[in-house]
Amino acid sequence: MTLTEARKQLMELQSKLSAYYHAVGSIHYDGVTGAPRGTAKNRAHSMTILTGELYKLNTSPETRAMLEYLDEHKAELSQAEQRMVHLLLKGLRKTEKIPMDFFMEHRRMIIEASDAWRRAKETSDFAIFKPYLQRVFDDCVKLAEICEPGMDPFDYWLNDSEEGLNSAKCDAFFAAVKEKVVPLARAISEKPQVDDSIINGYFPEYKQRQVSSVIMDMMGIDKDRCGIATTEHPFTTSLGSQNDVRITTHYYENTFSPAMYSVMHEGGHGLYFMYPAEEYAYTVLDGGCSMSLHESQSRFYENYVGRSRGFIKNVFPKLAEIFPENFEGKTPEDLYRAVNKVEPGLIRIRADEVTYTLHILVRYEIERRMLAGEVKIGEVPELWNAMYKDYLGVTVPNDTMGCLQDSHWGSGQVGYFPTYSLGTAYGAQFLKKMKETLDVDRLLDEGDLAPISAWNREHIWQYGRLYEPEELLEKVFEGPFDPTCFTDYLEKKYKDIYGL
Amino acid sequence: MTLTEARKQLMELQSKLSAYYHAVGSIHYDGVTGAPRGTAKNRAHSMTILTGELYKLNTSPETRAMLEYLDEHKAELSQAEQRMVHLLLKGLRKTEKIPMDFFMEHRRMIIEASDAWRRAKETSDFAIFKPYLQRVFDDCVKLAEICEPGMDPFDYWLNDSEEGLNSAKCDAFFAAVKEKVVPLARAISEKPQVDDSIINGYFPEYKQRQVSSVIMDMMGIDKDRCGIATTEHPFTTSLGSQNDVRITTHYYENTFSPAMYSVMHEGGHGLYFMYPAEEYAYTVLDGGCSMSLHESQSRFYENYVGRSRGFIKNVFPKLAEIFPENFEGKTPEDLYRAVNKVEPGLIRIRADEVTYTLHILVRYEIERRMLAGEVKIGEVPELWNAMYKDYLGVTVPNDTMGCLQDSHWGSGQVGYFPTYSLGTAYGAQFLKKMKETLDVDRLLDEGDLAPISAWNREHIWQYGRLYEPEELLEKVFEGPFDPTCFTDYLEKKYKDIYGL
Question: What b/e string do you get for B372-388 counting C-beta neighbours within 10 Å, with b at 16 or more?
């Protein structure tokens, strides 16, 4: 093998992998957006086979020989090539530990689990989901043991979501946040509640679709390569490459803000998906640095942009045009206060910025205890409800609004939830850095998001998966991660709103 | 190799093929339904690679060895296995003649051609589509020469749509139909025209979606495994197997009948896709016998069911409920006459039963002359318009309503159009056979389509691809194909409507 040949093979392998990821991504995306309801088993059939093909492609003797050759010659490779080889070799060494049959069967099970979750959520019948949830956690324990024997399974999955993350780091982070957030929430609860009547009423779906379109335009999302669809639980994905990105949302006709903010959240993911360096398309560098980094961008647009006074000022007239009756006699300040109402609630994706972390903590604790074998699957609903009572003071009326609300476990995503909170805190620190060179408040007030997105693109998006998360954060922060950026932001903002 | 091993390999190969067809089908389906507009090149990237993988799977030495072994032992195989081996070997022998690079590049080109067609149609700008149309026909000539050197390219593509079909057979069929249809159309044109005001007006898309749902229910289509989406040019496909079928339609808000009849047409395809014997799922027998047979079913539900007095009687109250204002003071007979109005027009998929064949003839003649090199691509619009003037007496105002109206050429489908007319005529003969044992008119009048579909399932659908088209037709007809079944049907029906 020559270096030239190996380099060519490296690019061909990645090109082929991207086609297979496009295939499984397309089948999955269809499955959770437009597919008829009785077709999960059919998808599972195809996905299992395609997953097996991906397994073989990632671990074949040819792939190994090429990667090991390039790894030996890494001094002669570009930084990007070195990173490609590193990521692919790491993937190979992990994947080959997992028996192929188990790998395929796990994929098949996940598709059925995801379908069972949807049915269970629709009917608030945990029993439908229970056996699948058991399988998900059993598989997660098994996969952790296979891939990193001796490592705590929870740490394994935290590290899987974000290289370098573990429960000690999460504990420290959550402790720092809780210390500030719990008293803040308590102080707010003693103040008169804001009026949020502007976001409640009747908002027909076809009008909310117009809102989504307006929001995508305001965010500067190129609709020629980013589509939007509806689903049970919003998510974002790319199909094949940065050149085809899909965001999703879910409309509720009694309020428009959840869909609007899910479009901003998924739109943040979407922008990150769309703007790695162009030359990373069809390579393993075409993506986000880590789950937390991804959530830093989604939560940035959802909250730091979307829930800012400036953005509200600019979106208000557009919303008033779409919903003239609902907005009659209202002011931008009414809307600003309504979308920033702090109130412990049942649903994570509708939670305010202050209590959001508490929703994450419930999931974090339950996952930890389930992976440690301390909690049986059948006890999850009761534990969930007890923790919501304890952490948020609310009573869960049914499992749809309780432990069935999120799609993650049904999709095999364990260890993911903390990345929402971490990402939110990273985002606050990005915002602080951004303000060193940009007058962010003025830009938001003028409705000019382009320089804000240009900053994110320059500092984060363009690098795709070139860096480890810790490297990238260090590079952007020019110092250590500091959760007080987030808690300071919360205190300043909500003292103003609630007159504390 | 033992027979047991080879049989197992045969089933594994087909299972894997179905997963790959699911993948490319899903990417294609997404591309023409929900995908953002600027993503065709991205799909082309993945599709080219997946097409290459399919090529390798279909023609690998292992595949060949297994198929040839089973072919030598065919006496020991079931009828279904024999047919699987036959179809796969035939495919292998054809595919291996085509260089893999050409095979992949053709697929890539088709995706871009399909996208260019859509853009050209939207703007009525033939120039956008022209270079792609050139490539499509160039490739079609080249593929015919590669696969069947010495065979007339037009015959090659007719035979590709329907095994055993050629231009001589088509000529004879079209001559027989024209002989009856042209005088019938002329006689009708001399009579007072029927009033079709009931189908014109304002019919909002969201209400037409309700109509589609009603029609699918009336047709007995199981929505748990058959979905519906919107697209530029309606089509039907299955994804992976009979267990996931998708029909599509296109809504025009100034009339509801084109969408309603496209749902019936595609629903006919959909039923055929859904009901091959269950054990054929994930094998090459899971599909339709031929394109003409497929069109026999789509046109059967569209016309023999959908445009019958009985069906209209039963759908009328449902439509009147959805469109109360438009239907006020109207009777089922008004609707029956409106949807059976005979009038030479511009658009094939909106054509009445009498003049439909003339639309097909235009395309048939143009394809024949293009493949023979007698017509240059740049001359197509003019030739199209001249033939519409000549055959149908109408003036084509622009290419969107002219040679850009159909998606077929942009999808590389050449030699396909005659199957619509042949299928329509097969359907008429099926109807005649069906009437020997079923009181079809009474069933339609009672709105009971179940026995009609049971007949189609028993005689046609269940066999999937088990038989050659000629075998299956012979089996169902219990005699030769007789186009007068179709022309007799037309004469009887339209003499009644127009009082000839």
Answer: eeebebeebbebbbebb
The full DSSP string for B247-316 is EEE--BTTBSHHHHHHHHHHHHHHHHHH-S-GGGTTSTTSS-S-HHHHHHHHHIIIIIITTSHHHHHHHH
* CA–CA gap between residue A353 and residue A421 (Å, rounded): 10
Contact call for residues A335 and A348 (beta carbons, < 8 A): no
From CA B9, how far away is CA B255, in angstroms rounded? Answer: 52
Which of A150, A185, A205 is the endpoint of a domain? A150
Q: Is residue B144 part of a domain?
A: yes
List of chain B residues whose C-beta atoms are within 8 Å of the C-beta of residue A224: 36-39
pLDDT of residue B409: 97
- Asked whether residue B406 falls in the same domain as residue B275, the answer is yes
Chain segment B9-50, per-residue pLDDT in tens: 999 999 999 999 999 999 999 999 999 999 999 999 999 999
* Domain tally, chain A: 2
- Catalytic residue (choose from B81, B162, B266, B491): B266
Q: Are residues B484 and B399 in the same domain?
A: yes
- Give me the residue from B15, B38, B222 closest to A49, CB to CB: B15
B155 assigned to some structural domain: no
Classify the complex by whether its ipTM is higher than 0.85, answering yes or no: yes
Instruction: Among B89, B121, B150, identify where a domain stops.
Output: B150
Enclosing domain of residue A51? 3-150
CB-based contact A224 B18, cutoff 8 Å? no
**Within-domain flag for A156:** no
Residue B491: the pLDDT is: 98
- Judged by DSSP in three states, A72 sits in helix
Tens-place pLDDT, residues B64-100: 999 999 999 999 999 999 999 999 999 999 999 999 9
Q: What is the CATH number of the domain that holds B479?
A: 1.10.1370.30
A240's tokens? 């094949």
